[in-house]
């Protein structure tokens, strides 16, 4: 199973991806997590990405496309993978299509988590309080506003992109975590 979880920051993509990892054994490919690891490790990619991430902008496409391209064929992706936070714009989506095609792979589904935007500020505030080791540098009101702006401008058009490909499904991301997971499981059972 190869799927994308699509949705604005705080929609619950990471939470749902982790549930899919434990329930189905798929790999979670979160570009945000990988970039934060690169920042923590002080690697070249991390140095390049840190300031961009802190202010809520997107890191360059070639960086994230390269990271994902390296990961999708790793052994832990044998049962499938969940793309969480990637693609973030049309150029990345096109690069992903090309990459999967070249590797003889195909996306099974794209699941869009629909949320009420004004509630995302409360969710992010809650996440900032609960994050072990302190809040993420971009889990604050200023960066979240920027991340939402970027989401609308660059990522939301992917709903139409995947709708046109006939692979888009939507779930109510405001439901309880288990109820969202149940909706996702129903979709996966059908594709
Ligand atoms: P996330 O954990 O998905 O919210 O991502 C945190 C930050 O990492 C984003 O605000 C971006 O700065 C960067 N990032 C993560 N994924 C991507 C991506 N696919 N393209 C560009 N930047 C990304």
Describe the fold and architecture.
It is a single chain. By secondary structure, this protein is an alpha/beta fold. Helices cover 57% and strands 13% of the residues. It has a single domain, classed as Rossmann fold (3-Layer(aba) Sandwich). It has a 5-stranded parallel sheet. α2 crosses α3 and α4 (61-71) packs parallel to α5. The protein is globular and about 40 Å long. The chain binds adenosine monophosphate (AMP). Adenosine monophosphate is lined by residues 9, 31-32, 35, 52-53, 56-59, 64, 85-88, 92, 138, 147.
Layout: helices, strands, pairs:
Layout: E1 2-6, H1 13-24, E2 27-30, H2 31-41, H3 44-55, H4 61-71, E3 81-84, H5 90-102, E4 109-114, H6 120-130, H7 141-155, H8 157-165, E5 168-172, H9 177-190
Parallel strand pairs: 1-3, 1-4, 2-3, 4-5
The structure holds adenosine monophosphate.
Features of this protein?
191 residues; alpha/beta; Rossmann fold; five-stranded parallel sheet; 57% helix; globular; binds adenosine monophosphate
Question: Widest sheet: strand order?
Answer: 2-3-1-4-5
CATH homologous superfamily (4th level) name: P-loop containing nucleotide triphosphate hydrolases
Bound molecules: adenosine monophosphate
Strand content: 5-15%
Q: Largest beta sheet, briefly?
A: 5 strands, parallel
Poorly predicted residue ranges: none
Instruction: Please name the CATH topology.
Output: Rossmann fold
Radius of gyration: 16 Å
Mean pLDDT: 96
What class do helices, strands and sheet pairing give? alpha/beta
**The level-1 CATH class:** Alpha Beta
């Amino acid at each position: 199973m190869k799927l994308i979880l699509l949705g604005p920051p705080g929609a619950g993509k990471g939470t749902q991806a982790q549930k899919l990892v434990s329930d189905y054994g798929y790999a979670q490919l979160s570009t945000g997590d990988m970039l934060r690891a690169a920042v923590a490790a002080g690697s070249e990619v991390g140095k390049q990405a840190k300031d961009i991430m802190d202010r809520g902008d997107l890191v360059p496409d070639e960086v994230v496309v390269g990271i994902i391209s390296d990961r999708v064929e790793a052994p832990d992706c044998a049962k499938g993978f969940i793309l969480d936070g990637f693609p973030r714009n049309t150029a990345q989506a096109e690069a992903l299509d090309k990459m999967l095609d070249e590797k003889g792979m195909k996306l099974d589904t794209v699941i869009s988590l629909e949320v009420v935007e004004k509630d995302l500020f409360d969710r992010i505030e809650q996440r900032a309080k609960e994050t072990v080791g302190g809040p993420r540098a971009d889990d604050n009101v200023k960066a979240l506003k920027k991340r939402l702006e970027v989401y609308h401008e660059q990522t939301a058009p992917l709903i139409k992109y995947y709708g046109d490909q006939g692979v888009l499904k939507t779930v109510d991301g405001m439901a309880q975590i288990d109820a969202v997971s149940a909706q996702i499981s129903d979709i996966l059972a059908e594709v």
